[in-house]
Amino acid sequence: MTSSKLAPPDLAASSTPTLKPRTGAEFIEEVSHDGRQVFIDGELVTDISRHPAFKGALRTIAAQYDLTADRANRALLTFPSPETASPVSRIWELPRNHADLVARRTALSRLSEVSLGLMGRSPEHVASFFTGFACAPDIFARGGAQYAKNILRAHARLRDHHRFVTYTIVPPQIDRSKPAHQQVPPDLYAGVVKERDDGIVVKGAQMLGTGTVFSDFVHLSTIHPLREGDENYAISVLVPCNAPGVKIYSRRSYAAAANSVFDYPLASRFDETDSLVVYDNVLVPWEDVFVYRNIELCRAQWFETPAHVLGNFQAQIRFCTKLRFLLGLAKRVTDMNGSSTHVAGQMGQLATYAAAYEGLIYGAEQNCTVTPNGYAIPGKQEIYANMNLQSEIYPKMLDLFRELCGGGLIQLPSSAADFTSPQTQEDIERYIRSPDYSAQQRVKLLKLAWDLVGSEFAGRHELYEKFYAGAPFIVRQHMLRNYDFNRAGALVDYALAGYNLAGAIEPAAAR
Predict the structure, then answer these.
(1) C-beta of residue 68 within 8 angstroms of C-beta of residue 89
(2) Which residues, listed in sequence order, are joined to residue 369 by a DSSP beta bridge?
(3) Is the Cβ–Cβ distance between 227 and 420 less than 8 Å?
(4) How far apart are the C-alpha atoms of 368 and 385, rounded to whole Å?
(5) Per-residue pLDDT for 50 more than 90?
(6) What is the DSSP letter of 91?
(7) Domains of the chain, earliest start first
(8) What confidence category does residue 468 fall into, taking pLDDT thresholds of 50, 70 and 90?
(9) DSSP states of 399-449 as a string?
């Protein structure tokens, strides 16, 4: 890494890897006091661990680190580092066979439960992309042997030092009618502005830096198609979040707007935030460059390596946990309201969506293939089918859940203070209750439901699940490219060969 005093000290090329998993306390200390520039509400945040916008989500991510560090979870969540033999998170493991994918899915599922599946860019997400990169260093070698070495080195360092990586791979929505190099000025999108002996200098902005406020590193690249002339933006690099010139502009915080955890139990703890990341003449050492001014390779890193499949495999496992949480909450609400027998159809429909989605995860795992490099990747057809289903079923499931809850979600006490005020407590406890639930228990459950389906936090999640993988028409194209039309077409050929003007042909002859 760079010699800057702000760079994470244990990631210097000559440093010794940590021999035990990173704890939550270590994570909080390291990312809260490393000099990163995080801005919100027009102010620079000097300590994210104390700021109301960030402290809840930071503690949730720390809980993931503690879960992995716990010796009781060693077999489930870690594997021996190939270089040090020390336990490292399974999120970095390169799968070799079906059993490895099963172990990966089981670990990812457990990790996602810490945030109820509500954190889409927690540490295991971009780690899955880097794992996919490391499965195909030969793709990066097309640009030069050094880039293949760089990606393998980066994967190993991130793995052995238990780092958290997010990414910014989408340009700002300034003028989508023009390619990157025709923007005015041309350094609006993040790209190379200077080449030096010790690295490249990057200037411009990129989004969506979901979770970047909390991460150690940000992967800067682009997944959007680039055109001739866009070479300066066709890069793939790794940047410390506290590198000089990196500025992280967080969107409005739902956590900071929450008046209490009781009233906003999800927003207060799981708002990972989204950020515009500005790269203001940031120096990236050559060793942290994986693609350099190469439009073809900038695209290939996603779709010719297992990265896009492994990254979305993780995202779907996470989303499955979220659906499971939604189903559990819907069942609890209908049981409380005494309406279970009357809403069996709606509940059955919710369960059908969730089960179908989960089934495709198992199908992708079962229908895995092995790459020429010897790594197992989940079935692409199932992965891309699920990506399309995700954006379609989540709004429908939210609407079904709202119907199940009815007006109870609207008529709730203004805040937790209504339970402690002598002026309001008696009426609240008398009129807002259910036969087997006290007023406080009922309100607690419905406030949880509101934060999942009706709050500003919930609105962001509905939009996130619709667009996290890209615009729906792009995701459909992924499905089109990966569906097995050859097998489908063979059935058409068989059908056509089975008859002629004279009538039916014997099945054996038709074959």
Answers:
(1) yes
(2) 377
(3) no
(4) 15
(5) yes
(6) G
(7) 9-303 (2.40.110.10), 307-488 (1.20.140.10)
(8) low
(9) HHHHHHHGGGGTS--SSGGGGT-TTTHHHHHHHS-BTTB-HHHHHHHHHHH
Provide the phi-psi class of 245: left if phi over 0, else alpha when psi is between -120 and 50, else beta: left
CB 215 within 8 A of CB 31: yes
The predicted pLDDT at position 473 comes to 62
- What confidence category does residue 16 fall into, taking pLDDT thresholds of 50, 70 and 90? low
Edge-to-edge, what's the strand order for the sheet holding 289-291? 165-168, 217-220, 236-240, 289-291
Helix axes 98-112 and 55-69, enclosed angle (nearest 10): 140
Q: Do the Cβ atoms of 31 and 54 come closer than 8 Å?
A: no
Give the pLDDT of residue 188: 86
Radius of gyration of the chain measured on its C-alpha atoms: 25
Rounded Cα distance between 212 and 403, Å, is 36
Token pair 């005015």 is at which residue?
184
Q: Which two tokens stand for residue 305?
A: 């390596």
Closest CA to 363 of 386, 346, 345, 392: 386
Q: Is the pLDDT of residue 14 over 90?
A: no
